[in-house]
Amino acid sequence: MPGVIYLLFVTGCFFGVPVLSGVNVTCDSYSVLVDWNFEGFSPDAEFILEVVPNIPLPEKVQFPTRSRSYNISKHLQDTGYNLFIVKVTARNSNNETKSENSPKFTFDDAQNADIKCELEFPTIDLIPGDHQLTVKFRNPLQLYRHTPALRNITDRDQLRYEVISDEPSIQKAEQECRLEDDTCESNVLFPKEKEHYCITVSGWIRHTKVKENRKCYSGSLKPSIPITVYIIPLLVLFIFTLIMVILCKLIPKKMKKEDLTKFPPFLVNKDMHLILPLKMEKEPVVEKLLFIPVTKIPLIVDTTGSTAQPETRSSQSLDSCVSLIGENSRNESDGDELEETTVHEFVDPYTNAMNMSDYDCAHCPI
Fold this sequence. Notes:
This protein is an alpha+beta fold. The chain has three domains: 2-116, Sandwich (Immunoglobulin-like), CATH 2.60.40; 124-218, Immunoglobulins (Immunoglobulin-like); 290-358, no CATH class. It is 19% helix and 31% strand. It contains five helices and 19 strands. Strands 3, 4, 6, 7, 8, 9 and 10 form a seven-stranded mixed β-sheet that branches. The chain is elongated. It starts with a helix and ends in a 19-residue tail after the last strand.
């Protein structure tokens, strides 16, 4: 076969006949692209492409192009259960080459084809928990809904996927995700503590395979105290404190307002210090006191039974009275007991001891 192609190529170059070869198909999650090789074609050469499905259609699907590649995604029908071949024919002026066929390709993993188109698995997020990992990713049914692979998808179609861990004791389980779900989630348990936790996810939509995706998590999966355990008590304490502060400000104001109503109207608008409670203040007290004993002198009684009246005092008797007081003080300091009751008078030393002019000294001689 290569020798025939080489012979045709040499013959075409010698006689000016164009040669078409190497029709190839490239498919991914979003498009299907066909490209080919050609030699000896004029700039105005035209290529006719025909999409031939495994299930015949009422009409042929043909379209012309002048480029060397073409995106045939919009011309594919029922991609979930079909097999396709693309025929390419070159037309140069009045000459038309024999059509070249592409390899068989399909999105149906159950078909026997040369090229099997698959969908890329979306990005996976691993959320750690208590001895488990939550696997979360965007729903491929919504991500690829308008691509050639899922163009004719219905609400009954689902994503079937498996989450496989590296732990041999954990059995894989098939999960499902519906079209209305924005994201798909599942949990994987890890009873043993390790340094790395790895999972592999793969799935199918109808017969279209979604390529497997592998993701690892490094960290601890030990149970941890949720942050709400700390936040809720602090929040309650803050609210309680705030309420107490507000009450402490409002209650005294209310009580003062109620107290004002008990006063006569003419005192309500007076200064507030008039109704404030009195404050206990320390009064000045003399620290050093002078004690001067005063002896009570009995009255002289007359034999006739009449009491002798004291005579008028004179300023000249003051010295005699003071001398008598001093003598009595000395007698008391020596320990002699006085027959009559002694009265102590408190005298302020800062005011000239005592006012001697007012001292009653009736017994002093005039």
